[in-house]
Amino acid sequence: MLLGLRKPIRLLWGYVAACVLMGFVLACAAVWTVPETAAPELFVLTVGLTKVAMIVSILPSLVVIPILEWRRVRRWYGYAIYGASLSAVASILISGGVERPQTLNLITIAVCFAFLGMASATVYWWIAGRFAGRCPVLSEPE
């Protein structure tokens, strides 16, 4: 019974770890840009921004991850492309760049978030994606 839960648990841990990395890097960037914040705020910001990353990415991930599992995509670049595109689009939508575009700032934000999305997708791939499509076949007693 527990062997059947290995794959969903691995997928969940991969998703959570990718979101934690995203939250931590965003929290570090926030602390770096606002130097008067202290170290305890780094933890609080990491938790808060991890929640934001999970909320923003849950619906696209519920669509893309099963497709990648079904197609048995085990290559890193498949996950990196998905992470980069999701982060770039989400950063543009969240920053409000669609209503009042400032080209240089918008491109900088999208590129920075794309690299962060690639890093988070790499964490997901390392934990769960490189095993995509593998499932232990258990023979039932007859």
Automatic annotation (TrEMBL):
Residue intervals passing through the bilayer: 12-32, 44-67, 79-98, 104-127
The entry's keywords: Membrane, Transmembrane, Transmembrane helix
Source domain of life: Bacteria
Record's protein name: Uncharacterized protein
